[in-house]
Write a structure and sequence with these properties.
The complex is a heterotrimer of chains A (317), B (312) and C (378). Chain B is mainly alpha-helical and 312 residues long. Chain B has 14 helices and no strands. The two termini of chain B are 16 Å apart. With 378 residues, chain C is an alpha+beta fold. Classes of the chains: A mainly alpha (317), B mainly alpha (312), C alpha+beta (378). The interface between A and B is large, with 92 and 93 residues.
Chain lengths: 317, 312, 378
């Protein structure tokens, strides 16, 4: 009957059938309402579309053979990907990236948490530090790297001088394969722990007072409260900070490039640095873009999982 | 009910006061002092170095406690040429001047690029955030998430192709070429943070404005914007810091003439004639602006850094 | 008379996501009428107001204002004034600015704006708060500012959404009295007043429109709503204490009709014959409001016409006494004047006043006494 040409709108318990004409009239009016909103989002969308162009061009390049020294382009199918996966350097890069991310984020999280707890008090140092702790974060990572690098020099560097007092002479810092990762992680921890501190502190401060008072009445003390109450309640906020740091570490460039440029023996050749070297030192654009696309995919999948996990934690609260 | 500023302070005090015993308080102070040393030592050290002569620095251990001097800073800003002296001295001076000019130039560039890109990103992003917040459609969340995902993309994915494309379209080494890319990183942040704040404003406010016969434009400027100000401020400050401290864009897409300060400093290092003091002075000058920003805008920082997830 | 209809709803359906907030709404509102829309939370009252104001569009159907099709009319063109249930004052503007806001758009001189704001602030008693911000005001003050903002502009249609809802009892009582004054101030306009408080509805309305779960249940003047409810739902939500309802069976003995269940036995006079005769079922629902019962504390002569029960509670509320009577499993509330002679645990004999008995269909819950269910125009 007429039912085929009309649309059934379902209510919770019953079906109310409205005919085409009724629906069309109101949908026109709704579009009229939507138009101004569409208009003001448009510039942002346009800009973003332009952003897609280099991305797609880069993607295309991964299927070609293109060197800066010899700009003829030949199509390559998936050869670059295959070669990349076969190359040892690639896997070293993965190792370096994940090592870097793991060390940086774990140290920053633990350190950040404890500093945040300390800053949540009303002592003199706490009041001062709350304002000051943010300073390393305000330093451009590359400049911070230069700063620490200067201090790690053998001749004029203060760090080696201080280390000599505890028996470590001529600590090689970024120069040696065994200490290079430690060095870059150190710089990252110095600059970005305040980020964790700031967010965690805000999270702790935002907690409601009542459960803690109740716990005090029940006789729970210090550490117990910390582990069983503060930490779980503050988890969603922490995760925000952790997720940001994980993703930023996966794509880190400035610090590693400034310190070791890939490090002795590829020990610190994280994704972005490796990609840079391939493109601008080896002048092999196609390999460089291939690596970056693979890196992007890995980061994209990880970030999606992390955001999903975060939504779950948030809804559980 | 919101409290007055005084009441707020008192409440904060009560909330935070862990009722620390003397011993605990002392321990906390000690621990925080250690934290202070660990995190601020490099800055203090470089500051001290910037106020020393080359001779004082060359000593090991460096001579901290004797006289301080501002000559490093003067060197940095010196423009004039001194005539006379041997050829080597003159060449050295010219080299110094090129370095200096490059350094000051870098500061100027960073200023121009950061301010322009954040300005444009704000003008485009805030209305977009508003539209995104109020738009009723199923595709909305995905669009918003796509904007956010720009933050998660490794920069080189875009920069490598852009490097090639820019040279072909003559955008390489131009202000607008750089500003464009910086807009691309500022825009998602501004949109995401502002949208989060506008989402918190009840739609009824705009309906009340409609009933009062406000045009949509007027409602946006008189009602929404004033109420979203903290969010917009956080967004702008965060973007500004991000663009100022950025290295890789300028490194790959700019020439010597146009490099931002982060790149200029690296290039400054390359020249073999190293005067540590001047170097330290250069570093200090380049980090001071953002440190000042952080102190002035401290209350917007957390909100910005968490991309609006945490509001204060 | 078509010219008398200010607002006409025709086949209105409104859908939010998966639920229908309004279904099959067809009625009209008269010019200069004070209409109260009454119903429980979530019934669709605010949605109705928003559709009139143009803040929401019906999913299906049309609304007519002043006999013009108004679906495509913007809020701007409709010239309605509205207050919101949660006031929605501009948080960053002072009370003065909030009140002045609708006038600013109209390009009126500042002198004139100031004059009008002061005038309305006087009427509503908020003159002392003109430079406060909304967050510094109490609920009652906010409500008055909200009202002031709506009233400061003259209009044909005023929409008031639960203006007294979030106020405590004392203030509400006071403002309800003031509302009578405001009502006369508004007597040249059409006012649509939403509430879930039946006393406000009965006190203020020219007509009451009852809706539940998005559907129109009944529309009529307070007297009709109170005495001729279309179904049990209406009977129950209007009136306190709630109407006494019992499920009974029809039993005929000789020429008499009785309604009985294991505890009660009520005699129906011949007046009800036609209704009973046309009613085909055995079970029927009986209703009678607490104020329409006779009672005796001493056993009456014709005691078999009375129901005998025990007083299990006696409460005084609003200067009236409420006697709760228990007859085995049935509990009946009876309203009376305050009397010292009423004690708990006493026996009591009660009888419903015949002319106030309501009978409802056991399946549909519809009122069998009213001849037709009328929607729309009375």
């Amino acid at each position: 009957m007429k039912r085929n040409r009309s649309k059934a709108i379902e209510n919770k318990n019953e079906e109310i059938i409205l005919n085409e004409e009724q629906l069309r009239a109101t949908s026109l009016l709704e579009t009229k309402i939507r138009r101004p909103y569409t208009l003001i989002i448009l510039p942002a969308i346009l800009i973003s579309i332009v952003f897609l162009i280099p991305f797609l061009w880069g993607l295309y390049l991964t299927f070609t053979r293109y060197k800066l020294s010899d700009p003829t382009l030949s199509f390559n199918w998936g050869l670059n990907y295959w070669n990349m996966v076969k190359s040892v350097k690639f896997w070293k890069s993965i190792l370096a990236t994940f090592q870097y991310t793991f060390f940086c984020v774990s140290i920053q999280t633990i350190l950040g948490f404890f500093i945040a707890i300390l800053l949540n008090t009303e002592t003199i140092m706490a009041k001062i530090m709350r304002k000051i702790i943010v300073i390393p974060l305000m330093i451009a990572p590359i400049i911070g790297t230069i700063m620490l690098n200067l201090m790690m020099q053998n001749k004029f560097g203060i760090f080696n001088y201080l280390l000599s007092f505890i028996g470590l002479r001529d600590f090689p810092w970024g120069a040696s394969a065994s200490t290079a990762m430690l060095t870059v992680v150190l710089v990252d921890v110095w600059i970005f722990t305040p980020f964790m501190v700031l967010i965690m502190l805000a999270g702790i401060r935002g907690l409601p007072k009542d459960p803690f008072e109740a716990a005090r009445v029940d006789g729970a003390r210090g550490i117990t409260v910390l582990i069983h109450m503060t930490f779980p309640m503050v988890l969603p906020t922490f995760l925000v900070a952790v997720i940001f740091r994980i993703i930023d570490s996966l794509k880190a460039f400035d610090i590693i490039f400034g310190m070791t440029a890939g490090g002795p023996g590829d020990t610190t050749s994280v994704f972005s640095v490796f990609g840079y070297l391939l493109t601008f030192t080896a002048l092999d654009v196609s390999r460089g873009t291939t690596l970056m696309i693979i890196a992007w995919l890995i980061i994209f999948l990880i970030s999606r999982k992390l955001v999903q996990y975060w939504e779950i934690t948030r809804s559980r609260l | 009910m919101r409290y007055t500023k005084e009441e707020n302070n008192i409440i904060k005090k009560i909330k935070r006061s862990a009722n620390l015993s003397r011993g605990m308080g002392f321990t906390v102070n000690i621990l925080l002092f250690v934290v202070f040393i660990l995190f601020l030592f490099p800055v203090i050290w470089i500051l001290i170095m910037s106020l020393k002569t080359q001779n004082q620095i060359a000593m090991m251990p460096p001579d901290i406690f004797s006289s301080f001097t501002l000559e490093n800073y003067k060197n940095l800003f010196q423009i004039g040429v001194e005539q006379g002296g041997t050829i080597t001295e003159q060449t050295a001076q010219t080299l110094t001047q090129i370095k200096t000019a490059g350094f000051l130039n870098g500061l100027m560039n960073t200023l121009i690029i950061s301010v322009t890109s954040v300005l444009i990103a704000t003008l485009v992003g805030v209305p977009a955030a508003y539209g995104l917040s109020r738009y009723r459609s199923p595709g909305k969340e995905s669009t918003a998430f796509i904007f956010l995902s720009f933050r998660f993309v490794p920069e080189l994915v875009i920069l490598i192709p852009l490097y090639i494309i820019y040279q072909k379209v003559n955008l390489y080494g131009t202000y607008w070429g750089l500003i464009w890319v910086y807009i691309l990183i500022s825009l998602p942040m501004i949109i995401w943070i502002t949208r989060s704040y506008i989402d918190d404003l009840p739609f009824d406010l705009e309906q009340a404005a409609m009933l009062d016969h406000y045009s949509k434009l007027r409602a946006f400027f008189k009602i929404i914007l004033p109420l979203a100000k903290p969010g917009i401020a956080a967004a702008i400050i965060l973007s500004f810091i991000f663009t100022w401290n950025n290295f890789i864009f300028g490194f790959i897409l700019s020439t010597n003439r146009l490099q931002p300060i982060t790149v200029a400093i690296i290039r400054y290092l390359d020249i073999t004639d190293l005067n540590y003091g001047t170097m330290a002075a250069a570093i200090m000058i380049s980090i001071i602006p953002m440190i000042i920003v952080s102190q002035i805008a401290s209350r917007y920082l957390v909100s910005g850094l968490s991309l609006g997830a945490i509001k204060q | 008379m078509e010219n008398n209809k200010k607002i006409i709803f025709k086949n209105i359906y409104k859908k939010y996501k998966d639920i229908f907030a309004l279904k099959n709404i067809n009625y009209s509102i008269n010019n200069n009428e004070f209409l109260v829309i009454f119903g429980p939370s979530g019934a669709g009252k605010t949605t109705t107001l928003k559709i009139i104001a143009g803040l929401e569009l019906p999913t299906v159907g049309e609304i007519f204002i002043n006999n013009q099709p108004a679906n495509s009319m913007s809020t701007f063109e409709r010239n309605v004034r509205m207050t919101f249930e949660n006031y929605i004052l501009y948080p960053h503007l002072t009370v003065f600015e909030n009140l002045a806001s609708p006038l600013r758009v109209k390009k009126i001189s500042f002198e004139e704006i100031k004059r009008r704001v002061i005038e309305i602030a006087d009427v509503l008693g908020i003159s002392n708060y003109l430079d406060r911000l909304p967050r510094e005001l109490s609920g009652g003050q906010k409500q008055r500012v909200s009202l002031g903002r709506a009233l400061i502009v003259e209009s044909d249609i005023y929409l008031l959404d639960e203006p007294l809802a979030h106020l405590d009892a004392k203030i509400r009582h006071k403002l309800r009295a003031e509302f009578q004054n405001i009502k006369s101030f508004l007597s040249n306009s059409t006012v649509i007043y939403v509430t879930h408080d039946y006393q406000e509805a009965l006190a203020l309305a020219d007509r009451i429109c009852i809706i539940d779960k998005g559907e129109l249940i009944q529309i009529g003047n307070p007297e009709e709503i109170y005495n001729k409810p279309t179904n049990i739902f209406v009977a129950e939500i209007i009136g306190q204490p709630q109407i006494n309802i019992s499920k009974l069976n029809i039993s005929r003995e000789k020429d008499n009709i009785y309604l009985v269940n294991k505890d009660l036995r009520i005699n129906l006079t011949k007046k009800f014959m036609p209704i009973i005769n046309s009613y085909n079922k055995n079970e029927i629902i009986f209703g009678c409001r607490p104020q329409f019962w006779d009672f005796k504390l001493i056993e009456p002569e014709l005691s078999k016409d009375f129901l005998k029960g025990k007083i299990i509670a006696y409460e005084i509320r609003n200067y009236r006494g409420i006697i709760t009577v228990q007859i085995n499993d049935e509990v009946i509330n009876v309203l009376c004047d305050i009397s010292r002679e009423i004690n708990e645990k006493d026996n009591i004999w009660i009888q419903p006043k015949e002319e106030e008995i309501l009978l409802f269909d056991a399946d549909t819950n519809n009122n069998l006494v009213t001849k037709n269910k009328e929607f729309g125009d009375a």
